[in-house]
Design brief:
By secondary structure, the chain is an alpha/beta fold. Helix content is 34%, strand content 15%. It has one domain (49-327): Alpha-Beta Barrel (TIM Barrel), CATH 3.20.20. It has helices at residues 53-64, 70-73, 79-84, 118-129, 149-162, 181-194, 210-213, 219-232, 251-263, 290-303, 321-327; strands at 18-24, 27-31, 68-69, 89-92, 133-138, 167-171, 198-200, 238-245, 268-273, 308-311. Helix 4 (118-129) packs parallel to helix 5 (149-162), helix 5 runs parallel beside helix 6 and helix 9 runs parallel beside helix 10. It starts with 17 loop residues before the first strand and ends in a 13-residue tail after the last helix.
């Protein structure tokens, strides 16, 4: 029987109005009231769809190579901008994730198969698109002995072989570290050996809200995993994480989480607004103003010493990822001078 996540008594407005639960692949999601659903989005969150030539070409390419992107799966609001700029985040490991987080649009289910040719096709797409910087994320694959680490490492190797000079960021799960640290360390070692320019693991939310929002992960183990990554990767590799706000946290809790991440050795941080994908997801608590995001950026860079903080309502983990890597001194475009 799947245990139910405990709701902290002081969790701001995380009242569960519908006690019925939906279950898929052994992971429970609460049906939560969408208290702000009817409200109009503020002007700073309105996005104009742009179906330009590059957007259509990239859409056709992904379908032709049977590839998934987190841009489409997670309904990222920046998809039109990024795809028109020929930037995309590849989603490997299949369409179904073995975990379920209250905010995430990626489908949860029992993965079907294991596509060992996927890394080659990702590298082919990177070459065809003429990308300078590629981001590769993955669904959690708790069904695999190595949690999908080989797929991540092989994708890095394939991109390196086919597209020398292209920067690579990888964003996997914690490789099961939260439940089995030894297993997580062994999986991480495969990725360390493949030498990405940026290694990311997203903490996503604050300590108080973690049991509700990410019941399949653990806050402190997540910080340990990031600290382990900082220890194992060379100093030239950036270690990165992400926070989503508007899910019930306070500003003080965000700053506490930022301090925790910096203490774990994270040097690149992204902070963005939560937008509720459906009625079956965690409800939206509030719209965070651009001024609040600007305060966090200054706090992170000026007071905590992050190399780069990308903070804004429309920011997602891979938004402007290449520039983030440059600012963290983890990667330089071919032909660029060091420090440029």
């Amino acid at each position: 029987m799947t245990s139910q996540p405990v709701i902290p008594p002081d969790a701001k407005r995380l009242d569960v109005l519908d006690r019925e639960r939906t279950q898929r692949a052994g992971v429970v999601r609460r049906t939560i009231d969408t208290s702000l659903k009817a409200e109009r989005k503020p002007e700073w969150l309105k996005v104009k769809a742009s179906y330009g030539e590059n957007f259509r070409d990239l859409t056709s390419l992904m379908e032709g190579l049977s590839l998934n992107t987190v841009c489409a799966q997670a309904r990222c609001p920046n998809i039109y901008e990024c795809w028109e700029m020929r930037e995309a985040t590849f989603l490997i490991g299949g369409e179904d994730c073995t975990r379920r987080c209250g905010f995430c649009q990626i489908k949860t289910g029992k993965p079907a198969g294991y596509d060992r040719d996927e890394p080659r096709r990702v590298a082919e797409a990177v070459e065809h698109l003429g990308l300078r910087f590629a981001v590769v994320t993955m669904v959690a694959r708790d069904d695999l002995e190595d949690q999908g680490a080989w797929l991540v490492a092989e994708t890095i190797r394939q991109i390196r072989d086919r597209c020398p000079g292209v920067g690579v960021e990888v964003l996997p799960s914690d490789f099961g570290y939260g439940r089995d640290p030894a297993q997580g360390r062994a999986a991480l070692a495969q990725v360390v050996e493949a030498e990405p320019d940026v290694f990311a693991f997203n903490l996503e939310t604050t300590r108080r809200l973690f049991p509700v929002i990410r019941p399949s992960f653990d806050y402190d183990r997540g910080l340990e995993f990031l600290a382990l990554a900082r220890e194992r990767f060379p100093v030239t590799t950036a270690v990165k994480s992400n926070l989503i706000v508007g899910m019930g946290e306070t500003n003080d809790e965000v700053e506490e989480c930022m301090r925790d991440l910096r203490a774990a050795g994270v040097n690149t941080l992204t902070i963005g607004q939560y937008l509720q994908p459906s009625d079956q997801h965690l409800h939206l608590d509030r719209y965070v103003t651009p001024d609040e995001f600007a305060v966090w950026q200054r706090y992170g860079e000026d007071e905590l010493g992050f190399d780069h903080v990308e903070s804004g309502p429309m920011v997602r983990s891979s938004y402007h990822a290449g520039q983030q890597a440059i600012d963290a001194r983890a990667w330089q475009p071919s032909g660029a001078q060091p420090g440029a």
